[in-house]
Amino acid sequence: MDKDAILKLLEAVRDGGMSVDSALGTLRNFPVEEMGFARLDHHRRLRTGMPEVVFGEGKSAQQVAAILESLAADGRVALATRVDHDKAAAVCRVLSEAVYHRDARIVQVNQSVEPEPDAPLIMVVAAGTSDLGVAEEAVITARGFANRVETLYDVGVAGVHRLLSQLEKISSATVIIVVAGMEGALPGVIAGLVDSPVIAVPTSVGYGSGRGGIAALLSMLNSCAPGMAVVNIDNGFGAGCMASTIVRSITCGGD
């Protein structure tokens, strides 16, 4: 339930196209739906511009499926993140329309609205192939919120010429999400070359002293490049949401 849906509902009641009882029925689970094991926040899209998304870890397949079914009841896209293959298979058996994005570990129900060809561009850049899972989580999240998204993978600083040869393409983006493990240098390099906001995503990829992504996180937090913000380790979802918020504030004037 978002602003447009509520406006249409109120206008239908005002114009006599819908009874008050029917409108109340439509709003019966607004803003919160009690499910026993969960309390769904159907008001979130109206407040923040983005719907509630299911965090799949720690939930059973039945719980994930039930929440997704409710979130997708209005025909809009519904996402569940951090869902492993076996759990996703069980969810898809319950929800035949569900699609599993294996690399991103996201289950999606319903298709998102296709963005206009000239819509603001979110570019997701990954340092190495080992960072692809986190990068794809950002991609599917941003696309799920109806953004135009392109990708550029395996352009880490160990072969910086691979990055520089794509600089014109990267510079065309409205927002750039940069995913990197190891020493986490790539986001700072890109932020020093472009005038777009850069969202840095440290990953847990790396050897022992990388401490599961802590080294990359600290490197990004301590970058001297301006125009760069950092999300948590392996948080492709958070980066996708942040990029969506920036694009929405540009296109809607913060509305």
Describe this structure in words.
The protein is of the alpha/beta class and about 260 residues long. The protein folds into two domains: about 35-110, no CATH class; about 120-250, Rossmann fold (3-Layer(aba) Sandwich), CATH 3.40.50. Helix content is about 40%, strand content about 20%. The protein has eleven helices and eleven strands. The strands form three sheets. It has a five-stranded parallel beta sheet with strand order 8-7-9-10-11. A four-stranded mixed beta sheet has the order 3-4-6-5, with helices on both faces. A two-stranded antiparallel sheet has the order 1-2. Strand 7 (about 120-125), helix 6 and strand 8 (about 150-155) form a beta-alpha-beta unit. Helix 4 (about 60-70) packs across helix 5 (about 85-95) and helix 6 runs parallel beside helix 11. The longest helix has 17 residues, at about 235-250. The mean pLDDT is about 90.
Question: Which CATH class of the largest domain applies here?
Answer: Alpha Beta
Summed up, the domain count is 2
Here the CATH topology of the largest domain equals: Rossmann fold
**Unreliable residue stretches:** none
The helix count comes to 11
Please tally the β strands and state the result. Answer: 11
* Mean pLDDT, all residues: 90
Q: Strand count, sense and closure of the main sheet?
A: 5 strands, parallel
Report the helical percentage. 25-40%
Gyration radius from CA atoms, angstroms: 20 Å
SSE ordering? HHEEHEHEHEEEHEHHEHEHEH
Briefly summarize what is shown.
The protein is an alpha/beta fold and 255 residues long.
